[in-house]
Amino acid sequence: MKPATCFAPSRFLRLLRAQWAEQRRAYGLFLLVVFATQALLMLIMLAMEHGRAGQTGTQAFFFWLGLLVSGMVFASQYFAALRRPESALLLLTRPASTCEKWLLAALTVLVAYPLAYTLCITLVNAAAGAVGYQWDLARATELLPEGITHSALPEPRDYALFVPFATYQDSSLQAPASQWAWLLVLAGLSGFAVLGSIYFRKLAGLKTAVVCFVVFLLTVLLSSTLGFHLEHLAWWLVLSGEASAPSLLWWLVNALFWLGVPALLWLCALLALRERDLA
Amino acid sequence: MKQRKTRLLFLFTLAVFWLSLLLTRTWPEGGRFQTGTLAYRELQGITALQIDADPARIWTNTLHIAFTDQDAITVEVHGQSTPTDAHTLLVREGDRLVLRPSLPDPPAGRNERYASWRIKQLNVPLHLAQLVVRHDGDLLISSAQAMPALTIRTQGHVQVAHAEIGQLHVYSHASMRSPDEARLAELAYAKVDADSRRAEASAHPLEKLASGRVSIASSRIEYLHIENLDGSIGLQNMALLKQIALLATPGTAISLDRLDAMARLQWKPLSEAQAEVLRQPLAPPASATSPAASASSAPSASAQAPAAE
């Protein structure tokens, strides 16, 4: 394929504009649902933990959990139009190359969505941190007997707003380097979801989930029989100076697992889209 | 079209995924860490071992202390860069040897409790039968040989496994825990309805919220003596114990894992003098090796003659 037929900036921009015009409402609605779900979940946790769920550690946990789950769902919905013959025809005959469609999907799923999600969830986390601190403070003040002073009261720094890749004093929070691993997990899982949504023509979500589960079971089986040493995949410990890399092969294995597999899954998605296009 | 190429590439991706996992077996499990054993031999005149080290920084979840027939204390360490000299970990203070490692400042961006190594196990000679643990980390005690007596003063939980001890004395300083940790114990109140919780909380001092646990497994202990100040104490695996003496304030809650232990359990209220000893901080100042300081770490009068009853 010639470069011009594979990717043309002006055509890509037109595709981008068309996609935005068509899908912005759906994307906005999806984000609203994620926002509402996360806010509701946080509210329940705050009520159960008497405000302590507003601590930075809990904010971080729900942030990454929400990003992985909603990122997968978002990715599986990106090519939802392919499941209906009439809309599939429209999508496949759109004046853009397969490569451009795939690139736009990758940018939307891996860059635009995580950024939009972060903005949304930061609002939830900011509110949870502020409310949680006041709730915990009020409860601790009520419980403390007379004579015990502020040393037993909650610390405002424990309720600081969680911002990805920021450094915190709390030892339970992940170091910024290790948070990159979550983004790579998201890249792999969303690539798998996009692949499934293109490859399967009917019940794509269900079939993708089944394949994912089967792969998971096989991996667990292999792990229990062969015994993988998973701690050797923690490349972030080397970057943060907590461990040393044994050899070049060690880096190669980490690159294969963390970069190679997500990249190959996205490549599979590209190939599946091209084969659907040709079909 | 059957999307054959996609299937093939997906199978190749799966193979890469499993191959990268398989290749992690190239390096040994935990191979990124060094392990080492450091010995401290100058034990002349030492009668007690005190542990000051911050459990969150250099312990794993539970510190295993193994009593063995040897003439040195050996510290088993593992981590990225482990210490090389036991004298940087253990400090002599009169008749006590204190585990107080001198640690470098954590690297930039790490929290203050960061350390690049951990203590796996402490092997202690049999004659050092007095343990003082300043922090609230859990202890696992074992002994390869029979010990006539062992005294433990601690703020944390004690688990005894694979040991033959004539008399085990546990002085629970759980009530000396910091208010922060006492706050954690508030969770226990979360199950009570709001009104009764408020009444409880205002009626008792913070010490009421503390708790301790003594667990004994596959060990032969003839006599167990526990002094506990308020809070609650849990006794587990008491079947082999012949006699249990519990000195605690009437407000102490106790849980037993078997009813027949009640017949062997003798409770006496803690006297004010004994309570005062328990209220004292576990670790004396660095220079405090005077008889008074030693007395505070020694078993109380009631514990000296356990079999009299």
Could you walk me through the main structural features you see in this protein, from its secondary elements to its overall organization?
The complex is a heterodimer of chains A (279) and B (309). Chain A has 279 residues and is mainly α. In chain A, 73% of the residues lie in helices and 0% in strands. Chain A has nine helices and no strands. In chain A, helix 2 packs parallel to helix 5 (98-143), helix 3 (56-78) runs antiparallel to helix 5 (98-143) and helix 6 packs parallel to helix 9. Residues 147-151 of chain A have low confidence and may be disordered. With 309 residues, chain B is an alpha/beta fold. Chain B is built from eight helices and 18 strands. Chain B has helices at residues 4-23, 55-58, 179-184, 194-203, 261-264, 272-279, 291-297, 301-304; strands at residues 34-40, 48-51, 59-68, 73-79, 90-93, 96-99, 117-125, 130-133, 138-143, 146-154, 158-161, 164-172, 211-217, 220-228, 232-236, 243-248, 253-256, 265-269. Chain B has a nine-stranded mixed sheet. Chain B has a nine-stranded mixed sheet with strand order 5-6-2-8-10-12-14-16-18. Chain B is globular. At the A-B interface, helix 5, helix 6, helix 7 and helix 9 of A face helix 1, helix 3 and helix 4 of B.
